[in-house]
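Structure tokens please, single chain.
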Amino acid sequence: MLSSRIVWAGAAAVLWCATMLVVSLSQGLAPSKPPDNRPIAALASDLVSSDTCRSCHPGNYASWHASFHRTMTQVAKPANFAAPMDGLELSHDGVDYRVDRGGQGYRVRSRPSGAPAASFGPPKEIVLLTGSHHLQVCWTETGLGRTLGQFPFAYLIAEKKWVPMSHSFLVSPDIKQVYEKGSWNDGCITCHATQGRSRPEPNGYFDSQVAEFGISCEACHGGGREHIEANRNPLRRFALHLSGAGDPTIANPAKMDGPTSSLACGQCHSIQAFTNAADAAKFDREGSSFRPGMKQLDARTVTQPPRPGQPKEPAPREAHAFGDSFWPDGMIRVTGREYNGTMASPCFKGGKFSCLSCHQMHPEETDAGSLNDWKASRQMKPGLGESDDACLQCHQTMKTNLTAHTHHAAGSSGSHCYNCHMPHTTYGLLRALRSHEISSPTARETTEFGRPNACTLCHLDQPLAWTADKLAEWYGQKPPQLSADDRLYSAGAQGLLRGDAGLRSLIAWSMGWAPAQKASGLEWFYPYLIFSLNDPYAAVRFAAWKSLQTLPGFSGHAFDYTVNDARQKEAVDLGYRKWWFEVRSAKVSYRPQTLLRGDGMFRQDIFDRMLDQRDQRRMLLTE
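Here you go.
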């Protein structure tokens, strides 16, 4: 009797398990309805998704999964937010915003500032996120299909601070909102996702699709469908392994010539123009037909402003891009467009140099600690981050006597290849970044094009005449015609007073750069950085604040760079008082070339004259 009961119990258990298996399988196989309030993931015909790569390439998958490329755009799940969101309350430009949990994520409501709580409008779901490294922005549903709107704030991750979007870019102070409804669908989708198709509709809405959110394996290696089908045959895999030959069914930028390899990065990291309206419309509808390994982009061209002797190229979509994103001689000055600089470099013309000469997309060590170090070093190859080996791997004849070329002490910042040939003349992400157009410093680049040269970005205290004399003495460069000011006064001080907003931001950032502080002496930085806390451009105020915090006596100095003009002036007054009465040393005698009197006060007549000569042109640096 007992055995009979056991049999029946076992049978029931088996039947229950079988039933649950069928239910589970049926639920797993049942197609889930895609969300209708945001762009969706839909694979193109030759793509298979990054998850498919994992089983055969676990190490490469691990490094990709840890990268900032993967998290360039994410679905707005609670775990993907960089900031605490529950109960978040912010105000900007006469509107109050409140964020609360709702459904599977977060929703935002708004009302006129100061209005009763009942005035909050209907909630809008935050559906996508962009960024996970320096800053993160949120995209919301609009009620217009898959068309996105924007939560008008960015979260600065290092500062743990929400700021209006217009304060997270270098934009003219009259611009209150950087992005419009549909901007992600029509612009960001191209490079902040893989195989994006904006798919505009006649009613002005978008029905946007991507292969994957973020930058996936197939963005760099091409579609994997043929590769997977071909390698189901173990004999083929074994033969390829024995031969050491590349696999023609998949692209590997590490095994390509320099220009072809770099274009895999340049499909996003460049300023581009569509060749004609028909190609642009097809691109918007179907996405890019470019695949890594191709020699040219599809429907687009990487565009540079005309340089002397070069034919005029198609202009990019952004009408302001040539005027703002490039220096007057054609060198790129905004981040995210490194391919423009790389392809203009002498090294690139040899056919071997590429992005992968210095950067490494898949490190050998894939434990968590190693991957964190790799991410923190800008995905550089081991040993190339802040060493000269990146350059000396090609320029080997300089290894034995580098100081004869640099005229600086061995191991000093002035004897470091990057500092002279890749100076911080590029702006983006609220900081200065190294130029990727490898060049040699000249005084002429400053006199004719307004670009700071490598020498005076380190020796901020020196006049341009000092640079011209050193370059003439060491390298035989003919000095250009110089103004009286350029013969007498600090190039750094002049840049902060006379320069456009982009240049002012670079100089303010450089005053917080340790090599410049050591070479220039930092005592004279205080009054300039404090004065710049009242700059009209938020980006300049941010750079000045961050650099001021690196100076003795101002570590952790509190300042909200997003406040209005009156509160900025209060912060300037407070900063001057703190410096003058608490930090300034009476033993320091300030040099006239810094436009300061011996006691540290501005030489007001010269200061006012240069400030009146400031380049006030309206700027927008799109990153």
